[in-house]
Write a structure and sequence with these properties.
Helices cover about 45% and strands about 10% of the residues. The protein is built from 15 helices and seven strands. The protein binds S-adenosylmethionine (SAM). S-adenosylmethionine binds next to β2 and β4. GO terms for molecular function: methyltransferase activity.
């Protein structure tokens, strides 16, 4: 069970205070700064991070709160306590393994964890929000032996998902619907129960607002808080707006992205690819600072997986062209690549400060959503629905009026 609302109100207020107080440390991205703005005020903190070995660094990335050397300077224990949330209770037997057919392994495990926590009430109409191919809708329908509707924007996903549902004889109806369009409101009534697994920023934001208006029950695992049309975060709840204003706490879209920047579940080859890309980007950063004679970060567009050039030199030539930079003929490519490697090791260590505030920020964002629904008369439980190893986006809001 979730804790009492008053406890969560304290949690929300205290998290606001801590996030606001420590903004100067968690906001700057070490990637962009050769000298971090806070390093002068906390030289020993920066030094102790730089001195970490690779294993210790990896351990702290995965679990920033345990035996954390930053505790000497930062409120590690209090942050750890504030992000501690109960696992929401599940009901019913395990789902049959054959239902996983056509669903990716990890996605299936998430669905397996989500469905028994849906607490479907008799007589309600069930709806999956941003359903993709409706894997969750299909599973819910089989599990409860009930009709489930699913809303999905992409026609091809609706088509394929509908075919899949029919082949498996499930009572699922996928409708092509842009959930941000005015017409989406008609799907929600006081008798609707909505399931949303990993609906991104504005998509779940819209669900929260419509549910608050209509009184629909919601089981939501939010995701990608930064996928939003607004450049700055506008708290959902009055309480969130007041706390943020009182503590001078405002969040840009970039700050929101920090809440989901975790790689714990990325496959090893993806992590290796990302690491090499970062080394090259940092190597190029050193080069561009020298070429421009300006000690300032220059953002370079990202490259889709598989589009990365084969060598550091090619990457730099590509990046220079994108930024309209003329490179000299005698660049010491090896030296700049090495500098990229050195910076990568340093950045990874300094990033541990941000790691420490990542989950607190995410919990703060979810508490804000919880407050919004509570203010609309909902009873809301907040907790986890699966282990973080399965998905770091493992928070769930279970709300009904
Ligand atoms: C992150 S996926 C989640 C899908 C599924 N719930 C899952 O967990 O695998 C988000 C889905 O939302 C859909 N989507 C994006 N924008 C949408 C919109 N405006 N209206 C409806 N669906 C949308 C995407 O096409 C995609 O299928």
């Amino acid at each position: 069970m979730s804790e009492s609302p008053s406890h969560d109100v304290d949690r929300f207020a205290r998290l606001t205070e801590l996030l606001a107080e420590w903004q100067p440390l968690w906001r700057p991205m070490p990637f962009q700064h050769r000298r971090l703005p806070w390093a002068q005020a906390y030289p020993e903190l920066a030094e102790s991070l730089r001195a970490l070995d690779d294993d210790e660094c990896l351990r702290l990335q995965a679990d920033p709160f345990t035996d954390c050397p930053l505790a000497e300077w930062l409120p590690v224990a209090e942050l750890a306590a504030l992000v501690e949330l109960p696992e929401l209770a599940a009901e019913g037997p395990d789902l049959p393994a054959q239902w996983a057919e056509q669903v990716g392994g990890r996605k299936w495990q998430q669905i397996e964890a989500f469905v028994p926590r849906m607490a479907a009430q008799p007589g309600t109409s069930l709806l999956e929000w941003c359903a993709g191919k409706g894997h969750l809708a299909r599973t819910l329908s089989r599990h409860l032996d009930r009709e489930v509707a699913g809303l999905e924007w992409q026609a091809a996903l609706c088509h394929d998902g509908q075919a899949l549902a029919e082949r498996q004889g499930t009572q699922v109806r996928l409708a092509q619907q842009d959930v941000l369009a005015p017409g989406a409101a008609r799907w929600l009534t006081a008798d609707t129960q909505v399931a949303a697994l990993h609906a991104c920023g504005d998509l779940h934001g819209r669900l929260i607002e419509l549910a608050a208006e209509q009184g629909s029950a919601v089981t939501l695992a939010p995701c990608c808080y930064h996928r939003t049309a607004r450049t700055h975060y506008h708290p959902f709840s009055q309480c969130g707006r007041e706390l943020a204003a009182a503590h001078g706490f405002s969040l840009s879209r970039e700050d929101l992205a920090m809440a989901v920047q975790e790689t714990v579940t990325a496959p090893r080859h993806v992590r290796r690819h990302r690491e090499r890309a970062n080394v090259w980007r940092l190597g190029f950063d050193a080069l561009q600072r020298q070429v421009r004679g300006l000690d300032a970060y220059l953002p370079v567009p990202s490259l889709a997986y598989g589009r990365m050039p084969d060598s550091f030199e090619e990457f730099c030539r590509w990046a220079a062209e994108r930024k309209g930079l003329v490179l000299p003929a005698d660049v010491d490519w090896h030296a700049f690549e090495q500098e990229g490697q050195r910076r990568q090791a340093e950045v990874t260590r300094l990033e541990l400060v941000r790691h420490l505030f990542r989950r607190p920020l995410e919990v703060w964002l979810v508490l804000d959503r919880q407050r919004r629904l509570e203010a609309a008369g909902f009873r809301v439980e907040l907790g986890t629905f699966c282990d973080r190893e399965l998905t770091p986006r493992n928070l769930m809001l279970r709300a009904s009026r």
